[in-house]
Amino acid sequence: MPLKKNALRIYEDIEVSDEDLQDLDLDIEDDLGIDLIDSTERLNLIELLSSLPKPDFDAVLFSLKPHSGLVSEDAPQGTRAKQLLDWSESAIGSGLIELSKILEEVIGRRRKDVS
Hints:
Layout: H1 3-14, H2 18-26, H3 39-51, H4 54-64, H5 77-89, H6 96-114
C-alpha cells in the first residue's frame, strides 16, 4: 500500500474531527492566561496523544522541547503521553495551550500530506 494511503488510514482510525481539534484550545485559558481544562477535555487530550503515530508524537516532542529524559523514548505511547502532559502542566512546561497548538499543527499538516 502506498505510504500516503497507509498514513491516511491511520488518521481515519484516530477519528478526530476538526471541531475536536478546535475545542482543544478554545476554553483552556482564563483571563489571567492560566491554563484551565476540564476533565473531559483532559481525557480527550490524553487519548489523542496516546493514539498518535510515533513519528507524529515525536514531532510534537521535538517542537515543544521538553528536557531530555522527561518523556521516555522506550515507554508505551500512553505513558509517554502522560509524561508529556505532566511536563506541559509543570512550572517549566509549555502549558496546555501551546501543546494543543502544536498538536493541531502536526495533525493538520499530516492530513494535508495524505489528501
